[in-house]
Design brief:
With about 180 residues, this protein is an alpha/beta fold. The chain contains five helices and seven strands; from the N terminus they run αβββαβαβαββα.
Amino acid sequence: MKRFPQRIVPSLAVLLLPLLVGCGGGDGSNARTAAPIPGNPAPAWEAETLDGTLVSLEDLRGEVVMLNVWATWCAPCLREMPALQAFHEAYADQGVRVVAASVDRNSAVGQVRRFLDEHGITFTVLLDPDQSIMSRFRTLGVPETFLIDREGVIAHRWIGEFDPLDPSEAARVEALIDP
């Protein structure tokens, strides 16, 4: 009988710990305690736009939502913004809403506004200076993006920079538009 090499066991424990922690605290039926992974409801979350309008994920129920967590100090975030804008322009009339949650601190609101103006970003941008989205969605960093279906269930999660217009990524969205 073969045994695992002793150095693999600690590595497996480190890899499995987040799964065990994410499973604790309930049966997963509560959106506040369910791990934010595909198949589970998106956690309740709200934030304000640059003009002070409060927007919650509950307000967006009925739309397909691409929720991107980003910051102006994050180079990969800035690189993917033009693609998110192009995606927004391609899919907005099909009931898909792009929402970007800036986790920049309060002092960076001017930077956020300048970046959006300079790059012609017209999709919904919410300010989250307390970075509450990062704990609610248990993000690993920025950028991170969640695809949420019309019923508020997470359909896909991208960790790191991605291209929403890549045919395989767009197919995920299109499957939610016309199920």
